[in-house]
Structures are given as C-alpha cells and as structure tokens.
Design brief:
Elements lengths: L13 H6 L17 H34 L4 H22 L3 H4 L1 H20 L4 H27 L7 H29 L5 H7 L2 H11 L6 H6 L3 H11 L18 H7 L12 H32 L10 H32 L5 H20 L6 H21 L1 H9 L8 H29 L1 H22 L9 H23 L1
Helix pairs in contact: 2-3, 2-6, 2-7, 2-8, 2-9, 2-13, 2-14, 3-6, 3-18, 5-6, 5-8, 5-9, 6-18, 7-8, 7-14, 7-17, 13-14, 13-16, 13-17, 13-18, 13-19, 14-16, 15-16, 15-17, 15-19, 16-17
Length: about 500
C-alpha cells in the first residue's frame, strides 16, 4: 500500500491527512481509514458535554415548581430562574467560547468542565433564591463555552465525509440528556416526595461530570488551530498523536504553509471579522435562525411539564399543598419524558441525513415542520378530554422531532463550519450567544405570557418565528456537506489574494 498524493505543489493541510485513506500499489483506494482511539475519545468527551446541557436545562423544567415552593417565588422570579442558566449559556458562548481561538480548543475544553463542576455542586447546596440564580447562571456559563468548543474540537479532528453525522451524533446527547433529565426528575420525586427533591436532581450529575472533567485532560490539541497560529511543528506533533493507529497510517505528517497564511491571520482574527464582507453572510446564517429556533425549542422544552399540567387539567391552581405539587409534577414529568423521546428520534434522523441530504434543506424543512407542530398543539384549546390530550401530544411530539432533525441540530452544525479556522470559535460562539438571546427571552417571558395571553396565542407566535426561520435559512444558505473546511476557506483567501494582485497590476 502507498499514501495518496494531494497534487503537484498543492501541499497538505491537517484535514487532508485526516480525510485521506491508503491506496493499493495500482492506485485503487483501500477504503476509509478507521477512526483512531484518540478521535473517538474526543468525540465521547464532547458528547457528554452536550448531555449535561440537556440534563440540567430540561431537568429545571421539572424542578422549577419545587424550587418556587421552597423559596416562595413570584411569577417574575419564576421566569428569572428559568432564564438564569440560559443567560449563562449566552454569556459563556460569547465571552468564553471565543477564547478557544486565543488559548486553544483543548484548554477551554477542560476549563469549561471545571467551571461546570464547581457551580453544579454549589447549585445543589443553594441556600436562597438569589444564590440559586447565581449558581444556575454559573452552570450556564460553562455550558455556553461548550457550544463552540465541543463542536470545534470534534470537527477539526474527524474526516470531512463523517463530520455532519459525528458532530450531530454528539449534539444528540443533548436530547438524551433532556430525556434523562425528565426521567431523573420522575425517579427522584417518586422515591423522595418532598420539596427538597430538586437538590438531589442536580446532584445526580456531579460524579459523571467529574469523570468527564478528568478525561478531557487526556485529549490532543486541535492541529488545525495550531497550524492557523503558525505553530507548525506543534500541529504536526498533535496531528500525529491524533492519527496514531496500528498499522501506522499516515507514516509521517508534513504540513505545507499556505501562501496567504500570514495575511489572513493578521487581518481576520478579531470580532469585527465576523461582520466583514467575506463572513457577513455566514454570520447571518449561523446566528439568526439559531435565535429563532431557540425561541420555540427552549420555551417548549423548559415548560412542557407546566403546559401539560395546566392544559390537561391536572394542576391545582396556586396550590401550596406539597402532596398536590408532587403529584402534579410526577404526572407532568411522565408526559414530558414521552414527548422528549421524539427529540432523540429527530436527532437520529439528522445524523443519518445531514451528510446525505445536506444541512440547508434539513434546516428549512425542519422549521416548517416546527410551525406545523405548534399549530396542531394550538388547536387543543377548542377541545376537551381525549382529543385535547391527543392534539397537545401530537403537536409537541411533531415539534420536537422536526426541531431536532432540522434547526436545533443544523444551526449548531453550521455555526462550526461556515467560518474560517482563525475565527471559528468566535463565529460559533457569537451564533450560540445570539441564539441564547432567544432562549433567555422565551424562558423569562414564557410564564408571564402564558398567564397573560394564554397557551394558544403563545403557540401562534412561536409558529410564526419558525416560518421566518425557514425563509432566512434559504435566503442566506451556505451548504457545507462534505466540504474540507481547511481548503474551502483557503480557496476564498486565494480569490481575495488574486483579486488584490490584479488590482495592483492595474494600478501599476
């Protein structure tokens, strides 16, 4: 067997080595080189970061009524608690996610989990309402940093042909976490039927989080990030560790510097680069649809138990009886868990189709499906009994399926693919933060609007935002299915350099 050539004078990038497979002596491809142990280690550790987000954020939906009772919270305070972790995600994605462009993917990959661990322990021990909000915010900051960092450390370490399904496979652990969060809430309440049960819900994540934190110390740094910062020897060393396998393949790694490398990094590493002519379209595509989908996904996800308990007539209005509160939340947690199953089914569909159908068609169609699900659920107010129940469940289940096969999955995937390596962390972080503005808004306003305008009108509004999301996606579309990210952005830089050279010749 021999190693393929990328072409005369072209030079190899890190992604070229990750993507290539060996050839027989006659030039026939042997087949795809298997993923290495290190590549799978990175994937699993990143996947569990998304699991913890789903676990903590969606578990809050079960815990909020208990927390509200223990701390005697008002409707506004209720909304603040629901929005606290999401506000933290917004800040973490923007303030910390972009730091992976400066300090490295691995460094922030480890730091975010340490922050998560500290605030998770404090959250379970919260002595009062103000401290509860602070600790939820701290947990959110760590989870926000994980949005860009986990995506980038995966996407910069795996083959281009498998990038969509592997990144989304890891992202799918968010849905698994949401389901487990609802299940944990049910199990804890069933075995510990008291107001303080919410503390044990959060505490269940402490030991698993500690194991993931330790594991993240033992991954490689992103070789594309090292290369983008001119650390070529380090990039070759880390790439060799990443691709270590038996038998050894590739036999050696020698990276060639691109002619525009220095110019690219000098001009395009700051936040302003996201709004330059070259990146503006990518910034709009990555951030605006994410904002629109988070309005619905987090509103429905956080308050599904509350909506079910109220809409199905099982909640006792303004009850302060502990027995009634526990019974209501156990019933609502059961219904929420059933609905959350469709999140997992949806993400499985996204994993299977993202590298076949493409990101843009799935995102646009998913938005349309979300609108349909919300409209179906809105019809429930006109019925009672079994029909009302069927419409609510059918609508929410369709919404969860379509959001995860479409915008909830694809916005995350696209945000880590449409920006150049030098600002990929900032771009993905900005998109996640912009998305979480929608999540924070809906988490804070949802209980207030639910009381003021009712479930039906609220669902109408969310359906409208989904339709707008489909239109924005299609208008600013950039398809990244199977694209070698190193060479895609390198071609853009080549075009700019050639254009600049042409202008210079004309001026001369």
């Amino acid at each position: 067997m021999r190693e393929p050539s990328i072409g005369p004078g072209a030079g190899k990038r890190v992604q070229d080595y990750i993507d290539e497979s060996p050839l027989w002596a006659d030039g026939t491809p042997v087949g795809r080189a298997p993923m290495t142990v290190m590549q799978w280690r990175i994937w699993w550790l990143a996947a569990f970061g998304k699991f913890f987000e789903g676990l903590v954020v969606f578990m809050t939906g079960v815990a909020i009524p208990l927390i509200a009772t223990e701390f005697d919270m008002s409707a506004t305070q209720h909304g603040i608690v629901g929005a606290a972790s999401l506000a933290g995600i917004l800040v973490g994605a923007l303030a910390l996610g972009g730091l992976s462009d400066t300090f490295g993917r691995k460094f922030m990959f480890v730091v975010e989990m340490i922050i998560f661990m500290v605030f998770l322990v404090l959250l379970a021990l919260s002595p009062s309402y103000p401290w509860l909000v602070v600790f939820l915010f701290g947990v959110g900051v760590a989870l926000g940093c994980d949005y860009p960092t986990a995506h980038l450390i995966i996407s910069e370490s795996i083959p281009s042909a498998a990038r969509g399904r592997l990144v989304l496979g890891a992202f799918g652990f968010q849905a698994l976490g949401a389901l487990v969060g609802s299940a944990v809430g049910y199990v804890v309440l069933a075995n510990l039927p008291e107001i303080s049960a919410w503390r044990w819900m959060y505490a269940t994540a402490i030991i698993p989080a500690a194991l993931v934190t330790v594991g993240r110390f033992y991954v490689t740094e992103s070789a594309p990030w090292l290369f983008a910062h001119g650390r070529f020897d380090d990039a070759e060393r880390e790439a060799a560790k990443l691709l270590k396998r038996e038998p050894a393949y590739p036999s050696e790694i020698r990276l060639a510097r691109h002619r525009g490398e220095g110019r690219h990094h000098a001009a395009d590493r700051g936040w302003a680069a996201l709004f330059s002519a070259r990146n503006r379209r990518a910034t709009i595509l990555a951030s605006v649809p994410w904002f629109l989908q988070d309005l619905g996904t987090y509103g429905i996800g956080l308050f599904t138990p509350t909506i079910l308990a109220a809409a199905l007539g099982h909640a006792t209005v303004h009850t302060h009886d502990i027995t009634d509160i526990i019974a209501n939340q156990i019933l609502a947690a059961e219904g929420a868990a059933l609905i959350d199953v469709l999140l997992i089914v949806g993400i499985i569909g996204a994993v299977l189709l993202a590298d076949r159908v493409g990101r843009i068609p799935l995102q646009a169609l998913g938005f349309v499906g979300c609108a349909a699900g919300l409209l179906i659920a809105s019809l429930a107010e006109s019925y009672t009994g079994a029909m009302q129940t069927a419409l609510i469940f059918a609508g929410f289940m369709l919404f969860n399926f379509m959001t995860n096969i479409g915008p909830n999955a694809q916005t995350y995937l696209l945000a880590g693919e449409v920006f150049p390596t030098a600002v990929r962390g900032k771009g993905a972080g900005f998109a996640a933060a912009f998305g979480k503005i929608g999540a924070v808004s809906t988490a804070f306003l949802f209980p207030i609007l639910l009381a003021d305008i009712g479930t039906t009108h609220l669902l109408y509004g969310l359906a409208a935002t989904s339709v707008i999301g489909a239109l924005v996606t299609w208008t600013f579309r950039i398809e990244t299915k199977g694209v070698n990210l190193d060479r895609a952005h390198e071609r853009e830089l080549d075009a700019e350099l050639d254009a600049a050279a042409g202008v210079g010749r004309e001026a001369a």
